[in-house]
Write a structure and sequence with these properties.
By secondary structure, this protein is mainly beta. It has no helices and eleven strands.
Length: 124
């Protein structure tokens, strides 16, 4: 069983930045593909970014490409999401997800473990 705990959410003005963190309890964290998803009020949960076990491959939703950066530190069992140039449309609960696989996946149904989520609110 893997436990994921997100942190770093908050209220920020449009154009600002936030960095989310997700700490994982997995003994072999480096075996896991990690990802971030988000869910705005009344909307489906959507993919934001994913990263391979080594950090060598990253994938982004078109809506965040060029503004968000996913990274990981396997020594600290932590994955990050640096969010720059934030927009009001980025307002959502952000979830960390994990899957024990070497193939990077990006759909929510592929992931086995989820965090509790952290709220990000971007004011205009």
């Amino acid at each position: 069983q893997v436990q994921l705990v997100e942190s770093g959410g908050g209220l920020v003005q449009a154009g600002g930045s936030l960095r989310l963190s997700c700490a994982a309890s997995a003994r072999t964290f480096s075996n896991y593909v990690m990802a971030w998803f988000r869910q705005a009020l009344g909307k489906e949960r959507e993919f934001v970014a994913a990263i391979s076990w080594s950090g060598g491959a990253t994938y982004y939703a078109d809506s965040v490409k060029g503004r968000f950066t996913i990274s990981r530190d396997n020594a600290k069992n932590t994955v990050y999401l640096q969010m720059n140039s934030l927009k009001p449309d980025d307002t959502a609960v952000y979830y960390c997800a994990a899957k024990n696989t070497i193939v990077v996946v990006t759909t929510r149904y592929d992931f086995d473990y989820w965090g509790q989520g952290t709220q990000v609110t971007v004011s205009s």
